Amino acid sequence: MKRLYSMLGFAFCSLLAAGTAVASDYGTPDEAQAMLERAASAVETDQDAALAAFVAGDPEFKENDLYVYCGGPDGNFSAHPSLVGKSLKDLKDKAGNNLGEEIYASAKPGEIAEVTYMWPRPGETDPVEKVAYVTMINDQICAVGYYKQ
Q1: Distance (Å, rounded) from C-alpha 64 to C-alpha 126?
Q2: Which residues are 131's β-sheet partners?
Q3: What is the C-alpha to C-alpha distance for residues 127 and 47, in angstroms, rounded to an integer?
Q4: CATH top-level class for 28-147?
Q5: Residue 6, φ and ψ in degrees, nearest 5
Q6: Less Cβ crowding at N or C end of the chain, within 10 Å?
Q7: What angle do the packed helices 29-45 and 47-56 form, to 10 degrees?
Q8: Do 133 and 144 form a contact (C-beta atoms < 8 A)?
Q9: Among the listed residues 79, 81, 82, 139, the one whose alpha carbon sits nearest the alpha carbon of residue 107
Q10: What's the Cα-to-Cα distance from 78 to each of 48, 67, 101, 127, 128, rounded to whole Å?
């Protein structure tokens, strides 16, 4: 009987540790906002270098599931891990809402706005609630999103 309890305790602790490791793979709202603030500063300092760093996945602008993406005045992604040149303005979330238009409408210079939408976590197919912090810097609309769940 002791052995059974010991094995159950070990299994429970293993599951608890696994859950903690998974949770740490996701960015927090504070981390997302801080990353966007660093990105805004980088764009203000040297826009071309900043956009290149965002696309390259520089560790200052990509951590766990957080990354910076930007759209230019033409409505296309100017920085994203895989969508550069594609339309941000026409992007729809997984519920069919026009996410891109909402991002462009919400972004204001010197302010950080929140846009909520439905998107699957990396490697998953079921959409969950995600929040993007968005701002306008120079002629760029930049954002960092985090998953609420």
Answers
A1: 19
A2: 116, 146
A3: 32
A4: alpha beta
A5: -65, -45
A6: N
A7: 140
A8: yes
A9: 139
A10: 10, 14, 16, 25, 25
Burial of 84 (0-12, 13-18, 19+ CB in 10 A): middle
Joined tokens for residue 83: 């969508």
Averaged pLDDT, 16-27: 59
pTM: 0.82
Residue spans per domain, the chain: 28-147
- Please report the DSSP string for 107-146 in residue order: --BT--EEEEEEEEPTT--SEEEEEEEEEEETTEEEEEEE
Concatenated DSSP letters of 60-72? TSEETTEEEEEE-
Q: How many other C-beta atoms can be found within 10 angstroms of the C-beta atom of residue 102?
A: 18
pLDDT in tens, 4-15: 344 434 444 443
Q: Please, are residues 70 and 77 in contact by the beta-carbon 8 Å criterion?
A: yes
What is the tens place of the pLDDT at every residue in 45-99? 999 999 999 999 999 999 999 999 999 999 999 999 999 999 999 999 999 999 9
- Pairwise CA distance, residues 18 & 54, whole Å: 30
